Amino acid sequence: MTELALTKEQIKGFECRHATYSKSEHEPGDALVVKEYIHTNDNRRIPRIRLIENYEREFWVTREGKRNHKQKKEWEKEQFLQKFKTPQHNLLYSISKALGRPGMRGSLRQMARSPYLYGCDIPTTSLIKADYQRQWPTCVHPNASVAVMDTETDVVWGTGEIILITLSFKGRVFTAINQRFIEKMANVEAKTQAAFDKYLAEVKAKRNITLEVSVGTTAGDCVAMCVAKAHEYMPDFIAFWNINFDMPRMILALEASGYDPATVFSDPSVPAKYRHFRYREGSAQKVTQSGKVIPLHPAERWHTVEAAASFYFLDAMCVYKRL
Q1: pTM to 2 decimals?
Q2: Count of CB atoms within 10 A of residue 165's CB?
Q3: Most distant CA pair in the chain: distance in Å?
Protein backbone atom coordinates (compact mmCIF):
# COMPACT_ATOMS: atom_id res chain seq x y z
CA MET A 1 0.00 0.00 0.00
CA THR A 2 1.43 3.39 -0.97
CA GLU A 3 1.25 6.48 1.19
CA LEU A 4 -1.39 7.92 -1.17
CA ALA A 5 -3.67 4.98 -0.38
CA LEU A 6 -3.52 5.54 3.37
CA THR A 7 -6.61 6.83 5.13
CA LYS A 8 -6.60 9.15 8.16
CA GLU A 9 -7.69 6.23 10.32
CA GLN A 10 -4.60 4.27 9.33
CA ILE A 11 -2.14 7.06 10.21
CA LYS A 12 -0.88 7.28 13.76
CA GLY A 13 1.22 10.39 13.21
CA PHE A 14 4.31 11.84 11.59
CA GLU A 15 8.01 12.02 12.41
CA CYS A 16 10.53 14.61 11.24
CA ARG A 17 13.85 12.82 10.84
CA HIS A 18 15.62 15.96 9.66
CA ALA A 19 14.98 19.14 7.69
CA THR A 20 16.92 21.36 5.30
CA TYR A 21 16.42 25.08 4.80
CA SER A 22 16.30 26.43 1.25
CA LYS A 23 16.00 30.05 0.21
CA SER A 24 14.90 30.94 -3.28
CA GLU A 25 17.59 32.92 -5.08
CA HIS A 26 15.28 34.24 -7.78
CA GLU A 27 12.24 35.49 -5.86
CA PRO A 28 11.20 36.19 -2.25
CA GLY A 29 10.46 32.95 -0.46
CA ASP A 30 11.96 29.96 1.29
CA ALA A 31 11.11 26.38 2.14
CA LEU A 32 11.86 23.64 4.62
CA VAL A 33 12.57 20.31 2.92
CA VAL A 34 11.49 17.80 5.56
CA LYS A 35 12.49 14.13 5.59
CA GLU A 36 9.28 12.81 7.08
CA TYR A 37 8.12 9.38 8.19
CA ILE A 38 4.45 8.43 8.23
CA HIS A 39 3.75 6.20 11.26
CA THR A 40 0.82 3.87 10.71
CA ASN A 41 -1.30 2.11 13.30
CA ASP A 42 0.02 -1.25 12.09
CA ASN A 43 3.59 -0.17 12.99
CA ARG A 44 4.94 0.78 9.57
CA ARG A 45 7.15 3.78 8.85
CA ILE A 46 6.86 5.20 5.34
CA PRO A 47 9.46 7.79 4.29
CA ARG A 48 8.64 10.77 2.12
CA ILE A 49 9.71 14.34 1.35
CA ARG A 50 7.45 17.17 2.50
CA LEU A 51 7.96 20.74 1.35
CA ILE A 52 6.84 23.51 3.74
CA GLU A 53 7.03 26.90 2.05
CA ASN A 54 7.44 30.15 3.98
CA TYR A 55 7.29 28.48 7.39
CA GLU A 56 6.58 31.22 9.95
CA ARG A 57 8.94 31.23 12.89
CA GLU A 58 8.32 33.09 16.13
CA PHE A 59 10.45 35.71 17.85
CA TRP A 60 9.79 38.05 20.76
CA VAL A 61 10.55 41.70 21.46
CA THR A 62 10.37 43.47 24.81
CA ARG A 63 7.39 45.83 24.99
CA GLU A 64 8.36 49.49 24.81
CA GLY A 65 7.32 50.22 28.39
CA LYS A 66 9.73 47.56 29.69
CA ARG A 67 12.80 48.59 27.70
CA ASN A 68 14.57 49.99 30.75
CA HIS A 69 17.78 47.96 30.64
CA LYS A 70 20.90 48.05 28.49
CA GLN A 71 22.33 44.60 29.19
CA LYS A 72 20.87 41.54 27.53
CA LYS A 73 18.93 39.31 29.93
CA GLU A 74 19.12 35.51 29.96
CA TRP A 75 15.32 35.40 30.09
CA GLU A 76 12.30 37.67 30.34
CA LYS A 77 8.71 37.23 31.51
CA GLU A 78 6.43 36.46 28.60
CA GLN A 79 3.94 39.13 29.73
CA PHE A 80 6.60 41.75 29.06
CA LEU A 81 7.18 40.51 25.51
CA GLN A 82 5.36 40.88 22.21
CA LYS A 83 5.37 37.86 19.87
CA PHE A 84 5.90 38.14 16.13
CA LYS A 85 5.82 35.61 13.30
CA THR A 86 7.70 35.76 10.02
CA PRO A 87 9.29 33.51 7.39
CA GLN A 88 13.04 33.10 7.81
CA HIS A 89 13.86 34.95 4.60
CA ASN A 90 12.07 38.04 5.98
CA LEU A 91 13.46 37.78 9.52
CA LEU A 92 15.91 40.70 9.44
CA TYR A 93 13.30 43.11 8.12
CA SER A 94 10.72 41.89 10.64
CA ILE A 95 13.16 42.29 13.53
CA SER A 96 14.11 45.84 12.53
CA LYS A 97 10.45 46.76 12.19
CA ALA A 98 9.53 45.17 15.55
CA LEU A 99 12.34 47.08 17.26
CA GLY A 100 10.98 50.32 15.82
CA ARG A 101 13.92 50.75 13.49
CA PRO A 102 12.64 49.83 10.00
CA GLY A 103 15.42 49.80 7.45
CA MET A 104 18.05 48.97 10.08
CA ARG A 105 20.90 47.12 8.44
CA GLY A 106 23.08 44.37 9.84
CA SER A 107 23.48 40.64 10.12
CA LEU A 108 21.33 38.44 12.31
CA ARG A 109 24.26 38.09 14.71
CA GLN A 110 24.48 41.88 15.03
CA MET A 111 20.74 42.33 15.51
CA ALA A 112 20.64 39.55 18.10
CA ARG A 113 22.81 41.71 20.36
CA SER A 114 19.80 43.88 21.09
CA PRO A 115 18.81 43.53 24.79
CA TYR A 116 15.16 43.46 23.74
CA LEU A 117 15.19 40.58 21.22
CA TYR A 118 14.52 36.90 22.02
CA GLY A 119 14.19 33.63 20.11
CA CYS A 120 15.68 34.63 16.77
CA ASP A 121 18.82 32.49 16.95
CA ILE A 122 17.20 29.05 16.73
CA PRO A 123 17.23 27.67 13.15
CA THR A 124 13.90 26.85 11.57
CA THR A 125 15.15 23.31 10.91
CA SER A 126 15.17 22.80 14.70
CA LEU A 127 11.86 24.59 15.22
CA ILE A 128 10.01 22.40 12.73
CA LYS A 129 11.40 19.25 14.34
CA ALA A 130 10.19 20.48 17.73
CA ASP A 131 6.76 21.14 16.19
CA TYR A 132 6.57 17.52 15.06
CA GLN A 133 7.65 16.19 18.46
CA ARG A 134 5.04 18.29 20.27
CA GLN A 135 2.23 17.23 17.95
CA TRP A 136 3.19 13.54 17.66
CA PRO A 137 5.36 12.75 20.73
CA THR A 138 5.02 8.97 20.35
CA CYS A 139 6.13 8.96 16.70
CA VAL A 140 9.87 8.95 17.30
CA HIS A 141 12.04 6.07 16.13
CA PRO A 142 15.32 5.53 18.02
CA ASN A 143 17.34 4.38 15.01
CA ALA A 144 18.29 6.02 11.75
CA SER A 145 18.73 4.16 8.47
CA VAL A 146 22.23 4.33 7.01
CA ALA A 147 23.45 3.65 3.48
CA VAL A 148 27.09 3.49 2.41
CA MET A 149 28.56 5.04 -0.73
CA ASP A 150 32.06 4.55 -2.10
CA THR A 151 34.02 5.45 -5.21
CA GLU A 152 36.96 3.78 -6.93
CA THR A 153 39.28 5.92 -9.01
CA ASP A 154 41.62 5.29 -11.91
CA VAL A 155 45.14 4.21 -10.98
CA VAL A 156 45.78 2.42 -14.31
CA TRP A 157 46.16 5.52 -16.48
CA GLY A 158 46.73 7.81 -13.50
CA THR A 159 43.86 10.20 -14.22
CA GLY A 160 42.25 9.86 -10.79
CA GLU A 161 38.85 9.78 -12.54
CA ILE A 162 35.99 7.85 -10.96
CA ILE A 163 35.76 4.43 -12.60
CA LEU A 164 33.11 2.93 -10.32
CA ILE A 165 30.69 4.13 -7.66
CA THR A 166 28.55 1.97 -5.39
CA LEU A 167 25.61 2.57 -3.06
CA SER A 168 24.74 -0.11 -0.50
CA PHE A 169 21.55 0.03 1.54
CA LYS A 170 20.07 -2.94 3.39
CA GLY A 171 19.24 -5.56 0.75
CA ARG A 172 19.94 -3.31 -2.22
CA VAL A 173 23.25 -2.52 -3.88
CA PHE A 174 23.69 -0.32 -6.93
CA THR A 175 26.95 -0.07 -8.85
CA ALA A 176 27.65 2.27 -11.77
CA ILE A 177 30.73 1.53 -13.89
CA ASN A 178 32.52 4.03 -16.12
CA GLN A 179 32.50 2.85 -19.75
CA ARG A 180 36.06 4.11 -20.19
CA PHE A 181 37.29 1.68 -17.56
CA ILE A 182 35.72 -1.45 -19.06
CA GLU A 183 36.35 -0.30 -22.65
CA LYS A 184 34.65 -2.79 -25.02
CA MET A 185 34.01 -5.56 -22.50
CA ALA A 186 30.80 -7.45 -23.24
CA ASN A 187 28.18 -8.73 -20.78
CA VAL A 188 29.43 -6.44 -18.02
CA GLU A 189 26.37 -6.84 -15.81
CA ALA A 190 26.37 -10.65 -16.02
CA LYS A 191 30.08 -10.81 -15.30
CA THR A 192 29.72 -8.48 -12.32
CA GLN A 193 26.87 -10.55 -10.95
CA ALA A 194 28.96 -13.71 -11.37
CA ALA A 195 31.89 -12.12 -9.53
CA PHE A 196 29.53 -11.02 -6.76
CA ASP A 197 28.26 -14.60 -6.38
CA LYS A 198 31.81 -15.95 -6.36
CA TYR A 199 33.57 -13.57 -3.99
CA LEU A 200 30.79 -12.22 -1.78
CA ALA A 201 28.29 -15.08 -1.67
CA GLU A 202 28.21 -15.11 2.12
CA VAL A 203 27.46 -11.39 2.34
CA LYS A 204 24.84 -11.68 -0.40
CA ALA A 205 23.06 -14.49 1.41
CA LYS A 206 23.24 -12.86 4.83
CA ARG A 207 21.67 -9.60 3.66
CA ASN A 208 19.58 -11.10 0.85
CA ILE A 209 21.14 -8.57 -1.52
CA THR A 210 19.84 -7.67 -4.93
CA LEU A 211 22.65 -6.17 -7.02
CA GLU A 212 21.89 -3.72 -9.82
CA VAL A 213 24.66 -2.82 -12.28
CA SER A 214 24.66 0.04 -14.79
CA VAL A 215 27.28 1.44 -17.15
CA GLY A 216 27.75 5.18 -17.58
CA THR A 217 29.31 6.93 -20.56
CA THR A 218 31.26 9.26 -18.25
CA ALA A 219 32.22 9.45 -14.59
CA GLY A 220 29.61 12.18 -14.17
CA ASP A 221 26.92 9.89 -15.55
CA CYS A 222 27.90 7.24 -12.99
CA VAL A 223 27.71 9.69 -10.11
CA ALA A 224 24.34 11.05 -11.28
CA MET A 225 22.89 7.53 -11.58
CA CYS A 226 24.14 6.54 -8.14
CA VAL A 227 22.75 9.64 -6.43
CA ALA A 228 19.44 9.11 -8.25
CA LYS A 229 19.29 5.65 -6.63
CA ALA A 230 19.95 7.27 -3.25
CA HIS A 231 16.89 9.49 -3.80
CA GLU A 232 14.92 6.35 -4.61
CA TYR A 233 16.14 4.39 -1.56
CA MET A 234 15.70 7.38 0.83
CA PRO A 235 18.08 6.44 3.67
CA ASP A 236 18.43 8.88 6.58
CA PHE A 237 22.21 9.02 6.24
CA ILE A 238 24.74 8.18 3.53
CA ALA A 239 28.16 7.43 4.95
CA PHE A 240 31.56 7.59 3.29
CA TRP A 241 34.89 6.60 4.79
CA ASN A 242 36.94 9.76 4.31
CA ILE A 243 34.34 11.80 2.44
CA ASN A 244 36.94 14.40 1.51
CA PHE A 245 38.39 11.90 -0.94
CA ASP A 246 35.10 10.99 -2.61
CA MET A 247 32.94 14.11 -2.59
CA PRO A 248 35.35 16.54 -4.36
CA ARG A 249 35.87 13.94 -7.11
CA MET A 250 32.13 13.40 -7.44
CA ILE A 251 31.54 17.14 -7.80
CA LEU A 252 34.35 17.43 -10.36
CA ALA A 253 32.95 14.50 -12.36
CA LEU A 254 29.45 15.97 -12.42
CA GLU A 255 30.59 19.41 -13.51
CA ALA A 256 32.90 17.96 -16.19
CA SER A 257 29.90 16.12 -17.65
CA GLY A 258 27.65 19.19 -17.60
CA TYR A 259 25.58 18.32 -14.51
CA ASP A 260 24.51 20.88 -11.91
CA PRO A 261 25.33 19.37 -8.47
CA ALA A 262 22.36 21.22 -6.96
CA THR A 263 20.03 19.41 -9.35
CA VAL A 264 21.68 16.01 -8.87
CA PHE A 265 21.90 16.09 -5.07
CA SER A 266 18.49 17.67 -4.42
CA ASP A 267 15.46 15.41 -4.31
CA PRO A 268 13.65 15.35 -7.68
CA SER A 269 10.41 16.41 -5.97
CA VAL A 270 11.94 19.70 -4.79
CA PRO A 271 11.12 22.67 -7.08
CA ALA A 272 14.11 24.01 -8.99
CA LYS A 273 14.10 27.33 -7.10
CA TYR A 274 14.76 25.52 -3.80
CA ARG A 275 17.43 23.10 -5.01
CA HIS A 276 20.86 23.79 -3.60
CA PHE A 277 24.16 22.09 -2.89
CA ARG A 278 27.25 23.04 -0.97
CA TYR A 279 30.23 21.04 0.19
CA ARG A 280 32.20 22.64 3.00
CA GLU A 281 35.52 21.18 4.15
CA GLY A 282 36.18 21.12 7.87
CA SER A 283 39.07 23.12 9.27
CA ALA A 284 42.49 21.52 8.65
CA GLN A 285 44.07 23.04 11.77
CA LYS A 286 43.34 24.47 15.17
CA VAL A 287 44.95 27.28 17.14
CA THR A 288 45.68 26.77 20.84
CA GLN A 289 45.30 29.48 23.48
CA SER A 290 49.03 30.08 23.26
CA GLY A 291 48.69 30.76 19.54
CA LYS A 292 50.27 27.51 18.40
CA VAL A 293 48.85 26.14 15.15
CA ILE A 294 48.26 22.39 15.21
CA PRO A 295 47.30 20.42 12.08
CA LEU A 296 44.25 18.19 12.50
CA HIS A 297 44.19 14.51 11.64
CA PRO A 298 41.77 13.79 8.75
CA ALA A 299 39.46 11.98 11.21
CA GLU A 300 39.29 15.11 13.39
CA ARG A 301 37.91 17.29 10.60
CA TRP A 302 34.15 17.56 10.09
CA HIS A 303 33.09 18.08 6.49
CA THR A 304 29.50 19.02 5.72
CA VAL A 305 27.22 18.65 2.73
CA GLU A 306 24.16 20.85 2.32
CA ALA A 307 21.49 19.60 -0.09
CA ALA A 308 17.70 19.54 -0.29
CA ALA A 309 17.55 15.75 -0.03
CA SER A 310 15.99 12.98 2.05
CA PHE A 311 19.41 12.00 3.36
CA TYR A 312 22.33 13.66 5.11
CA PHE A 313 25.91 12.87 4.10
CA LEU A 314 28.46 12.13 6.81
CA ASP A 315 32.02 10.87 7.15
CA ALA A 316 31.96 7.58 9.05
CA MET A 317 35.67 7.97 9.78
CA CYS A 318 35.01 11.20 11.69
CA VAL A 319 31.98 9.72 13.43
CA TYR A 320 34.04 6.72 14.53
CA LYS A 321 36.78 9.01 15.85
CA ARG A 322 34.31 11.05 17.89
CA LEU A 323 32.50 8.07 19.31
Answers
A1: 0.90
A2: 28
A3: 81
